[in-house]
Amino acid sequence: MKLNYRYTIAYAVISFCVLLIGFAIVYAALSRSVTQATIGKLKHLNEVVAAQLRSGRNYSQHPARAHVLVRRAAPTDTARHAQLVQVRDEWDASLQSTVSVVRLTTYPVVRGQRFWITSKAVVVEPSDVYLTGLMLVFAWTFVFLLALVVILSEVISWRILKPFNAILRGIQRFQLGQPTTLELQPSRTAEFNVLSDFLVTMTTRAQSDYQGLKEFSENASHELQTPIASIKAKIELLMDSELSEKQLLMLTAMHDELERLTKINQSLTLLAKLENFESQPATLTDMSDLVQATEAAFADLAEMKGLRTTLQLVPEVRVPLDVALAQLLLNNLFSNAIRHNVPGGEIHALLSPTEFTLRNTGHAPSVPVGELFGRFKKGNAALDSIGIGLAIVKRIGELYGHQVDYSYAEGWHTIRVVFAAPAV
Amino acid sequence: MKILLVEDHPELAKSIASYLTQEHYICEVAATFDEAREKLILFTYDVVLLDIMLPDGNGINLLKLLRKDGVESSVIIISAQNALDFKLTGLSEGADDYITKPFPLPELHARIKAIMRRRSPHKNNVLTFQDLTADLESMECRVKGKLLNLTRKETNLLLYFINNKGRMLTRQAIAAHLWGDYTDNLDSVDFVYQHVKNLRKKITDAGGKDYISTVYGLGYKLNAGD
């Protein structure tokens, strides 16, 4: 979930709570003030009645007396309070419903006689009439507030998070192997500045470490070639001297191991080379010719293993690839197809303007096919391969944006190279 | 034939020189850029074997100087660089050939021979060994005058054997020679066995003697025999 969505949700929840509390306060205040207003009116009414009593005339038919009860207090009755307010729900026959009734009793003394004057009035409770209106008001307020929060949070977070998003984009674009460094604009937010400073320092250090490591492995394997060549030459010289069979066998074992070491080393140098290689997508290679030539070069090997090869080529398929790399890619694919095949098996090569597919029969791989692109991963441990060919193929594909897939189904291994569109 | 070997690794230089001497070349060694330059000014060599990484300079620069001075020697670059470096950067420009370390010594020998042949195409166009002859121009091989029906790989193999007669050739060396860059990822040694077997059969079928002997199943040797 995006950061500003989370903020928006938090704001929405907060404003909902605030509105709910506000609603409760307003409701309570309204309810209280309605009662208070009624009491005020009744007080006035009681004073009017008390004034009527003082005048001594008969007002019993006066409209003011409609809801007023007047009686003389017994001599024992003493007024504890100046007035008594009672609010209670009662059945009102004239309204045919239970209503809230406010009663106010005052104890005026008229010409030495204490009276009890009790007046009553029906109060329309807010719960009856106002509640719906109030709720509507608050609901609409909430809706507007929510809309405002959503819109503002988009705008504000876009503004405030602009440097942050720039940092994110910078990190996404950043590649360890590339010479470009991470460049970030300073922002007005202190935290973002700390973050971008940290990232710039970290990526610069990672880059220089990576570069150092890469140079080291490239130099190391490069420097190894000369001593290996020297050992190899000496073994070859020794082989031509007078030796017993036992000595010769040992020497050959050494030679074979050295051969293996050489191949691993060469492949590693090659991979290091490819890591540093800057591809030029503008260079096009005629894959049709190359596939045909490669197939011809491997024809005798395929024949010796009793393999049947079929080619299906669209002529003049030109693909962004360096010729030498295309050759290397095809060599690796064809030699794999022959090497991991079964005697009497088949190889199908198919070239279309969009992809190259090489299918061959073979045993099921012992590890998940996706892993075979890794270095030193072998599908079949019994074979004397070093397991780096597919890593090279994948790397070459990556250099030019061609996608390399490998799948295995029902005795067929399929390698698909889907070509990237040529740069115009 | 005189060869100048420019190589700064003393042990490797010693081995190559000793091998080339056995093959009846006159081989001199220069360990540095300056030494090589001096020798090239003072003497004439047929072939220069040139390492690229020299302690006091780059072999490629030496090659450029050489060509500027009009030195006619053939140059084979011997380098620890990957074959791909040569292909991608045209590193070997101006050189007649290149070979990447480590290489089988017979392969170096074969390359030198091939270059020398290209230099003087009309001289010594037929290789012979006992009653085997190989015409390098028409690529025809004969046993006692009888034409052998060989494939291109088999012809190549036979030439390699004749060029390195009397020497043990390991299966790897033969594979490297026959398939070159294609051999990287193959169990090519099994294929070598097949090719050698076919070649031997074709020679004996044509009435020739089986000159190729197997050395404990490790490699092969072309011998005059008994």
From TrEMBL, chain A:
Q: Which PANTHER family match?
A: SENSOR HISTIDINE KINASE TRCS, SENSOR HISTIDINE KINASE YKOH
Keyword terms of this UniProt record: Kinase, Membrane, Phosphoprotein, Transferase, Transmembrane, Transmembrane helix
Pfam families, sorted: HATPase_c (PF02518), HisKA (PF00512)
Protein origin, superkingdom: Bacteria
Q: What class of enzyme is it?
A: transferase
Catalytic activities: ATP + protein L-histidine = ADP + protein N-phospho-L-histidine
Annotated membrane-spanning segments are: 7-30, 129-152
- Histidine kinase domain boundaries: 219-424
Q: Which GO terms describe its cellular component?
A: plasma membrane
UniProt-listed Enzyme Commission number(s): 2.7.13.3
What is the recorded name of this protein? histidine kinase
Keyword Phosphoprotein among record annotations? yes
Can the keyword Phosphoprotein be found in this entry's annotation? yes
Q: Where is the signal peptide?
A: none
GO MF annotation: an example: phosphorelay sensor kinase activity
The record's annotation in PROSITE patterns points to: HIS_KIN
Automatic annotation (TrEMBL), chain B:
| SUPFAM superfamilies from the UniProt entry | CheY-like
User: Can you provide one Gene Ontology molecular function annotated for this UniProt record?
Assistant: phosphorelay response regulator activity
CC annotations in GO: cytosol; protein-DNA complex
Modification 4-aspartylphosphate, positions? D51
Q: Name one GO biological process term.
A: regulation of DNA-templated transcription
All copies of domain Response regulatory, residue ranges:
2-116
Q: Which residue intervals are the DNA-binding region? A: 124-224
Which Gene3D superfamilies has this protein been placed in?
3.40.50.2300, 6.10.250.690, Winged helix-like DNA-binding domain superfamily/Winged helix DNA-binding domain
Q: Which residues form the OmpR/PhoB-type domain?
A: 124-224
Task: Write out the entry's keywords from A to Z.
Answer: DNA-binding, Phosphoprotein, Transcription, Transcription regulation, Two-component regulatory system
Q: What is this protein called?
A: Response regulator transcription factor
Q: What is the lineage of its organism?
A: Bacteria, Pseudomonadati, Bacteroidota, Cytophagia, Cytophagales
